[in-house]
Each structure stands twice: as C-alpha cells, then as structure tokens.
Amino acid sequence: MVYDLTVGTARNPVIVIICFTVFALLTTILRIQSKWMRKAKVASDDYLIIIALLLIVLSETLQISAVVVSGLGRHAGDVSPSDIITLLKINFGFRLLYGIEVALVKLAIISFYFRLFSSRDCFRVAAWIVISLTVLWALADILAVFLLCMPLSMNWDMTGEGVCLNRTAMYYSLGAINIFTDITLLVLPLPYILGLRLENKRKFGILAMFSFGIFNTAVSILRMRALITANGGDITFTLARVFMWTLLDPCVLIITANLPMVRTYFMLVAPHIFGSSMDSSNQHRMLEENRLPRFMAEVDDRFGSDLSDQVRPKPFGTKIVITGGKGAIDDMFTNTRPLWHPPGARGIYGGAVIAQCLAAAQRTVPSNFTVHSMHCYFVLAGDATIPVMYYVEHVREGRSFATRTVQARQRGKAIFTTTMSFARENSGGKKTVEHAVPLPSDILPPGDGPDQESGSGPFMSRRIEILNKESKNPHEKKTRQWIKARGRISDAGGHQAHLSALAYMSDSYFIGTVSRIHDLWRFGAPANPTSSKSETDSVTKERELYRRRLKESEGVDALAENVEGKAEIGMMVSLDHSIYFHEPRRFRADEWMFTEMSSPWSGDGRGVVQQHMFAGDGTLVATCFQEGVVRLKDELVPIPKTSKL
C-alpha cells in the first residue's frame, strides 16, 4: 500500500530531515571548495565527512520509503499489519547505518583536532581515549542491532519463538556513551582556544563556533528519549520521532564539523565583510598588538612620516588583523599598515614580508617550539598600498619538530612563500657536538651617538670597510656592518619578537654584497638617451629617494662614491632567502649585531651570498644564504627599477 503525505506527523519529519541534509551537503561543498581555493589537499577528515554524508542520504531514502510504503508517522490502526512488518525491517537497516554515520563524523572531527593540537601530549592522550570510545561504541551499537533479538526475525516479527534483550537498558547504556563522547568533543579544544592571545570578542566568536556541538548533544539526548518512550502498541506513530532524531544527529554533527571551513570560505570570497579589509575603524575585529610580536606592530610606526606619500601611503592603523585564528583550519593573517616600500623600488622590502611570515607562523606552534630554519622564495613584486594575506599551513606536528608553510598573497596571487621548521627546545639531548664560527677579531660595536633614535628606517646600519678590499678575487672579499632595530623592542613580544626583527634585518643589502665586491655602481645617470622627459623626471626622483634612504637609514652617501670606470647595475632582485637560527635566546635585535657577508659565486646574471650574524658578545646567532638576479645595465633600454620582492 502507498501512503500520501497529507498527515503532518508523517510529512513534517521528512521536511525537517531534508532541510538538514541539504544544509549538511551545502556546508560540505563549501568545505571542499575552501580547500580548492587555498590549494590545500583533501585530508582524511574530508573523506570521512563525505562517506558519512553518502550514508545519511541512504538513511534519508529509507526514511522516505518508510513513510510512503509502510505508513511511518500514522497511527498503527491506520496501517496494515504487513506494512508494519515492512516498517520494522526498514528500521533494522536504519539503525545499522546510524552507528556508522555518527562514528565517521566524530572521527573526522578528532582528525581535524589532531592537525591543530597534536603537538600537545595531553591532547594526544585525551584524543586517543575519545577515538577508542567512539570506535568501541560504534561496534557495540552495530552488534546490538544484530544481538538484541534472536533470531533476527524477532526484530520485525514478534509472533515467532525467540528472545529479546532489555531494550531500555541498551538504549540507556549506548545513549550515555554517545552523549559522553559528544561532550568530550565539545570540551577537548576549549583549553587551547581559551589560551589564545585574542581580544575577548574574537575569542568568543571562535568559542561560539566550536560550541555549536552543544546542539548535537541536545539532539542525542532527545533521540535517546524518543527511543525509550517509543510505544510498541503504536509503533508506526512513535517511530517517526525516532527516525527524525536519529537522522538529525549525524546531520548536525557534519554541520558542526564543517563550520570552521565554511568560515574560511566566506573569508576568502568576501574579505571586506568577514575581516580582511585594512579598514580598522569599525568593521573588523582587531587582535591586540601582542597577537604578533610587538616588533611587528612598532616597526611600522618607525618607517618615518616624512617620506612622500608616493612612496608610502598614510598609515591605516597600528594593529594586526587575524582573519582566521588558531582553531580554524589554517591560520590566516593580514597587515593593517602598509609594509615598507623602499624609495626607488617597485615592491615591498623583502625583509618585512619574511619577518611577518615568521611572526605569523610562530603564533601557530607551542610556546616551547622555536624556529631553527626558514627557506623563502620571492615570487612577485608586492604592492605596499594593499594588504598582504598570510596563509599558514600546518604541514607537520611532531614531538620534537613542527613544520609550517606560509604563503603571502595579493590580488589572489602568491607573491612570497616560505617553509619553516620549528624544534622543541632542549630536545637535542644532553650530549651534543658543538662548534661555531667566531666573531672576527678587532671588531668593536659603534657607540651610541646622538643620532641613535633619529632617522626614518626601522633599523640602523653602520657599515665597515670591506675586508680584503684590494683582493683581485671577489670571493675573498667580505662586506661587514653593525645593525640593530631602531628603538627598543617590547618585552611583551618575548624572544619571538627578536627573531622576527632578526629576520627583518637579515635582508639588509644582502644580495647587494655582489655589487660591492665587484665595485658596481647603482646610481648612474638619471636616464639614458631613449628616455622621455617624464621618464627622466620619474627616475630621477626615485633615485634621489633611494639615495636619501641609504644615507638616513644605512649611513651610505651614494653621491660621495667615485663612479669613474664603474659598471652600472641594471637589475638587482632577490630570488630566494634562507635563514638558519642557531641561538634564538642569546641575542637582542635592538642591540648592536655584527654581520659579515661574502659571495662564493656569481654568474649567468645571478649571484649567491652567505651571511653570518653575531650577537654583540660574539655568539653566532644565525647563518643566512640568498640568491638573486644581478644584471648589468643595458644602455639601449630604459632603466629598470631595483626590486626587493
């Protein structure tokens, strides 16, 4: 017999479940779409969600069949006995799918948690306990379907001979374990979210997103109540609520599991609404300045307000916006102030992007993990007038090492990418092999003169005469300088702030070492014969600004150089940059540091430079390498602009 949908108790549960199934499907599509947009791999939790969703669709098909074919939702007196038997057979398969669906989604949620918090020992222990409980519960639920009544036909035909166990006791025991795992999944990430250094509104938003699991716990409780109160005398009517709550449980779980990725999706497609704009007045939630080390917040304020707006736009604000914090799938950050744009350059200062990528990644690892290596690639020239989006991907979470990849993007394109490795402090063992390059002898730091706090650059540089300057072999020459951050870095940033500052300064005239050891001229005639007057004026202005920056921030007077007989650089731009951090806690970046650079090779329009960075006490704190384009000027083409990124 075929039953229509005119009865509300039969029709309404179907409508509710269809709506929630469609919503779960849409959030899953957005989940996968957000991965594709970020070029992230589809992970194990994504596959578990997809499999669970397919099983839910199958369960929904069984529910609709039970309503149309077996009279589900109608009173037993209005349904034929043969249809009641058919309904109970459908219910047997329906119950079998439920345990599998719920277990798959819960395992997907725990898998997602593992990518965020697995470096913490206490989390791993708790997570494996929940995984074990979930798997055992699912097995028990499946076995209960087969073992509740013997023979199996007793599940739908009570007239034959056989025996059934206590249904109420089974519902209570399995329901209690299910609710316990629901609550555990809800509580598991809370300590780490509460520990985030976010403003209260931002933290509350992330808590609210993860707390959506409260609704799932409520659904589990209502399902258990519906099972216990199901009336065997009117089974077709009371089972309608059981079917509805049984399907709602995995649907709400999937929606809960998808929320962080749905949030990421909307941040990508509508950043002006969901927190990516550089407008800091009233639209966006700001992180406190200590969300990134204070060096990053303060250094922008020391870029110098006297530079032309053609070079550096007016500041947008002093705080850093987070567009996806820890607890979302991948951390996403952006700057609210333009990064430093060196006069005469066509892009952002590379050290600024290096430092902000490091600062962002440092916020995604445990506090006892410190960066030990960083490998960067400059892809495109950045635009200082628009924000840079920093996407942090959690590549590996280990006991002793963690890996992060950060991609800086503008206008939907990658302009910079870096991979960093972090090591747990004191994980090298008690016995180690040690040696280090010593600080060159007879090197004294510059004094603190009256101009110590003057100037516009974010750091100060004091050049020393080139070592082995008269050598005929460029690889024997070494460029040297003392360098430090301008002003004082706040202690609130910890040693991470000094690491970011070191990364910032490590790009200071790095590839320029090749031009110095080859005695090349960077400031030739304002223009060549093929240039128009407007081009001449523009290039002249940019060269003058470039010279001015060198004189103010680096102490170099380009006009005082003897240019006779020198070849002129036509293009000089960084390609890649690597930093090996040796002693992350044995230096201060706002105190004088000594750097020594040499070039082992140059050719084919490129050059490679090595740099040693020492603390004032002689400790070797970092070793850096950089390769860049170094091309001599072609007099027959317009003068290209030097770029650092």
UniProtKB/TrEMBL annotation:
GO molecular function: fatty acyl-CoA hydrolase activity
Keyword Ligase: no
Membrane-crossing segments per the record: 12-32, 47-72, 92-114, 126-149, 169-192, 204-222, 242-262
Residues spanning the signal sequence: none
Residues covered by the Acyl-CoA thioesterase-like N-terminal HotDog domain: 338-423
Pfam family, one: 4HBT_3C
Annotated segments matching region Disordered: 440-459
Name this polypeptide is given: Acyl-CoA thioesterase II
